[in-house]
Design a protein that fits this description.
Bound molecules: cobalt (II) ion
Distance between the termini: 76 Å
Largest sheet: 8 strands, parallel, barrel
Structural class: alpha/beta
CATH class of the largest domain: Alpha Beta
Number of helices: 22
Helix content: 25-40%
């Protein structure tokens, strides 16, 4: 450390009364967005932010990230919370610190490009609800996807932070795509668009410390806006990258409160405060105040979320990221996808195929949604291609990418792959070169129609415009038109402790089905029943727990197959029917019972086993959620024609008819969650 970094350290106080640094580093706290998104599947509830909100406001953060990214999706889908309400609620407690959100450019807070009319109103409503800083990124770093939202951010008088997604094609910065020149040019583009600050968004933790130094130093002498570093901890390098970035003159850093830090999240704030204490970049934060916040988080909040923490490994870093230059989340998705297809032995082929697919698709950065697009296509190639024929099963998203619907790729797409992908493509066989949203029809009026009688204001309309299926379902819950399922309700700290106790007992083999239970009458399930997973050595049980007088009561235990998806997936809702018979079900693939209204209305169809007598079933290849049926009962279909759109892995999958025939029965409806192998319809 240079001498000028050091101020007088003797008698230095932990508190705020110590002398102010010459150029204090500014810090954005990500606990309430990226923190729980990275560690707890974005399941953090507003009620669990309120107990520390006012204290967080006192820390002196430059901003707090509280919204955007996956929060909008998970809140309305899994938490039965109105995403818009979170901004307004937190604003009542956090009055001094500006709010920041992650805006996915023209993707807003979803996974595809939305039409301009939706994008404009969305930004306006976010600003009016209380958003101050719009951290804006595009997965392809194609800033034409900013052209609609930026003028609205500016006209609302808000802060436009432009991001450069940090990506690599080799172990360190350089090569012919993602080199220093690339990043400087992108920064100049953002400055030209009026960026109030520029963020290097290192979503995979790929940024090595000396590359951080080089890039920040060069950016500081090339562009005027403040430089902000967002670097995930995943690979273990980001603490070092932060320190080198500080030495190179970075203006703003991202951190989390320690219980929400590290692993795939961000470095913690507390070590940074201590590391800089007494230097000319001293944060000025009161470390004892931070400790007081941590105590509340640890004792009263985190026990409710601990079960979501991926504790399958002891190590808190993922060295695969260093080996493959791909985001950790993407790799775990690939593993889950292979596991669902019973093809986990092909993982090495996937690692080898991944860089080839990425190169064919224009060396795009790997971030939501491009990481899923590249990942799923890679798995398809490994599973279905042979030596003679590549890209046998091209996903719709790859077709869209080849058409130009996501924007311009870093290098041109392999023309052969592009030609194959666009053969018979619905929008046309010739790729576009214009700004992608220019080919999208306006969507807002349609959403207004959809929401009629369901929602009351523009925020409701936007919820539905962004998420037509789950958004509509949420509005039904919000306005009392439909009963939300039990698993969307929050759990209390006592429930969390009871569940943990039960899991401990199950692990110790103390939860057994007793003979005398057969004489006991089984109580009816209450509306508070919770379903959770219990793992005992290699076995996996789905257990329903109903709390009676504070004592957890095992209501049903259903053994599940050992090969289970561990990725958080939409959970099948617990049907409100009497408990299952007590004898354990055979170890077969489970399928949810049909929704009551359907089982009443139609002939009950066989659920798992193909029944040739009645026709051929179309089964779900993976767990997911029904987006829509493209056919009705009685419709004629030809083999290969799309029958169902199933959402899984954040992707919409078109499921083709396995045979030609007539749709005899349809077993689910839009918005239903389905298990792997669930029979979606019967073709006869
Ligand atoms: Co992030």
């Amino acid at each position: 450390m240079n001498d000028h970094h050091r101020v007088k350290l003797t008698g230095m106080s932990y508190g705020k009364e110590r002398p102010k640094a010459k150029n204090p580093i500014k810090v954005e706290d990500l606990t309430f967005r990226d923190g729980h998104q990275s560690l707890f599947a974005t399941r953090g509830r507003t009620e669990d932010m309120i107990p520390v909100a006012e204290m967080m406001d006192e820390v002196g953060f430059w901003a707090m990230e509280v919204w955007g990214g996956a929060t909008f999706d998970t809140m309305h889908r899994f938490l039965n919370e109105d995403p818009w309400e979170r901004i307004r609620t937190l604003k009542r407690y956090i009055k001094k610190t500006p709010f920041s959100m992650l805006l996915r450019g023209q993707n807003l807070v979803g996974y595809r490009n939305y039409a301009d009319d939706v994008a404009k109103v969305f930004v306006q409503r976010a600003a009016e609800n209380g958003m101050d800083i719009f951290r804006t990124f595009d997965a392809l770093n194609d800033y034409r996807n900013f052209e609609t939202v930026v003028p609205v951010i500016k006209s609302c008088g808000r802060h436009f932070q432009g991001c450069i997604c940090y990506s690599l094609t080799e172990p360190r910065m350089g090569g012919d795509v993602y080199n220093l020149k690339y990043y400087l040019n992108k920064a100049k583009d953002l400055e030209g668009m009026g960026a109030d600050s520029i963020c290097i968004k290192d979503m995979a933790g790929l940024l090595a410390p000396y590359d951080a130094f080089e890039i920040v130093k060069a950016l500081k002498s090339t562009v005027k806006p403040p430089i902000h570093l967002h670097s995930h901890f995943t690979s273990g390098m980001s603490g070092m990258a932060q320190l080198k970035a500080i030495e190179a003159g970075v203006d703003i850093l991202d951190t989390c409160m320690s219980p929400y830090a590290y692993r795939t999240s961000h470095p913690a704030i507390e070590p940074l405060v201590m590391a800089l204490l007494g230097t000319d970049r001293d944060t000025g934060f009161d470390i004892k105040h931070l400790a007081a916040i941590n105590e509340i988080l640890e004792k009263d909040i985190l026990p409710k979320y601990k079960h979501l923490l991926d504790d399958t490994k002891v190590s808190i870093i993922d060295i695969n990221v260093l080996l493959h230059q791909t985001p950790g989340g993407m790799l775990s998705n690939l593993v889950n996808q292979l596991r669902q297809m019973d093809a986990l032995d092909k993982i090495d082929n996937v690692y080898a195929e991944l860089p080839r697919v990425r190169k064919d698709l224009g060396q795009i950065p790997l971030v939501t949604p491009t990481s899923q697009i590249v990942g799923i296509q890679t798995v398809n190639n490994v599973l279905f291609d042979d030596d003679k024929d590549r890209y046998k099963m091209i996903t719709d998203q790859v077709k869209d990418l080849c058409y130009g619907l996501y924007g311009k790729t870093a290098v041109p797409i392999n023309p052969e792959v592009q030609k194959k992908a666009l053969k018979g493509y619905s929008r046309g066989e010739k790729a576009i070169t214009c700004r992608p949203a220019e080919v999208l029809e306006p969507e807002l009026e349609k959403a207004k129609e959809e929401v009629k009688g369901l929602g009351v204001d523009m925020d409701d309309i936007l919820t539905c415009a962004l998420y037509p299926v789950t958004g509509k379902r949420f509005l039904k819950w919000k306005y009392g038109k439909e009963e939300p399922p039990a698993d969307v309700f929050p759990k209390t700290i006592q429930q969390a402790k009871n569940e943990e106790d039960l899991v401990r007992k199950a692990r110790a083999g103390l939860v057994v089905e007793k003979k005398e239970e057969e004489e006991k009458q089984i109580p009816a399930r209450s509306e508070y029943i919770r379903t959770f997973n219990v793992f005992v050595d290699g076995d996996f049980f789905e257990v329903g727990v109903d709390e009676v007088g504070g004592t957890p009561l095992v209501n049903f235990i259903q053994p599940m197959p050992a090969q289970v998806p561990v990725m958080p997936m939409p959970k099948a809702t617990v049907p409100k029917t009497p408990p299952k018979p007590k004898e354990p079900a055979p170890k077969a693939a489970p399928a949810p019972a049909p929704p009551p209204e359907i089982s009443k209305a139609t002939e009950p169809a066989p659920k798992t086993a193909p029944a040739k007598a009645n026709g051929t079933p179309l089964s779900s290849p993976m767990p997911g959620m029904i987006v829509s049926y493209k056919k009705n009962v009685g419709d004629q279909v030809t083999e290969g024609e799309t029958v169902v759109i199933l959402e899984a892995m954040k992707m919409e999958n078109a499921l083709p008819a396995p045979v030609s025939g007539v749709i005899k029965s349809i077993n689910f409806k839009s918005g239903d969650s389905v298990a792997k192998n669930a029979v979606l319809c019967i073709i006869g």
